Amino acid sequence: MVRYTELETKHHFQYFAFQSMLSSLSNPLVDSVKKVKYVILNAKEASYSPAWKNSTIFACKNNDDSQWYRLPDTHYDPERGHLSFTMEHDARTGGTVQFSYFPPYSHERLLGLVGKCASSGSCRVESLGKSLDGRDIQCIVAGEGDRTAWIIHRQHPGESMA
After folding, report:
1. What are the beta bridge partners of residue 124?
2. Which residues contact 124 (CB under 8 A, 6 or more apart)?
3. What's the pLDDT at 65?
4. Residue 162: per-residue pLDDT
5. Radius of gyration, alpha carbons of the chain
6. How many Å apart are CA 129 and CA 113, to the nearest integer?
7. Distance between alpha carbon 153 and the CA centroid of its chain, in Å?
8. What pLDDT was estimated at residue 154?
9. DSSP per-residue codes, 59-91
10. DSSP per-residue string spanning 134-156
11. What pLDDT tens digit does each residue of the chain (162 aa) get?
């Protein structure tokens, strides 16, 4: 995702997320396990390319949002500007693998969290309005007293997730 900021008059990008399907990588009748190297060729052009050094890419198999793990063989080559990592795909089990700079916090997972809060009895859920996609922007109110604390999540990719 590339964002243009008028203030800085430049395009920003750092975050990425994509999915790889096993069926396009191997023949289950011939290959059982195939090691695939993924390379992001334009990593050097990211908004803050030094962040790639010593970073690890996240992976998640078969869209299981709770099972993200790091790929320790992630490597950034600053001279070539390439970010690379490998994944072993097992043709016997099939499925898909998602890769991401940070694990995304899915809308379904958000709805589950809001639902738990609403049914807990210790807080209430209010709608502050609608997003550009027409989804509710929820506010979870907990506790009482003179002090107010705002906890904001899903601000934008590249920051700590919710």
Report:
1. 141
2. 118, 140, 141
3. 73
4. 46
5. 20
6. 18
7. 13
8. 57
9. EEETT-TT--EEETT-EEETTTTEEEEEEEEET
10. S-EEEEEEE--SS----------
11. 556 666 666 667 788 889 987 655 555 556 677 888 999 999 998 888 888 999 999 999 877 777 899 999 999 999 999 999 998 887 666 678 899 998 887 788 888 989 999 999 888 899 989 988 898 888 888 888 898 877 766 555 555 444
C-alpha 156 chain-centroid distance: 10
Q: Considering only CA atoms, which of 111, 115, 98, 96 is closest in space to residue 154?
A: 111
CB contact burial 22-39 (16+ within 10 A = b; e otherwise): beeebeeeeeeeeeeebe
Contact 14, 101 (CB under 8 A): yes
The full length of the chain comes to 162
Largest CA distance in the chain: 67
Distance CA 1, CA 119 (A): 35
Report the distance separating Cα 85 and Cα 75, nearest Å: 6
pLDDT of residue 61: 86
Q: What domains can you pick out in the chain, each with its CATH number?
A: 3-100 (2.60.40.3120), 107-142 (no CATH)
- Residue 151's Cβ-count burial label (10 Å; 0-12, 13-18, 19+) is exposed
Cα 119 → chain centroid: 27
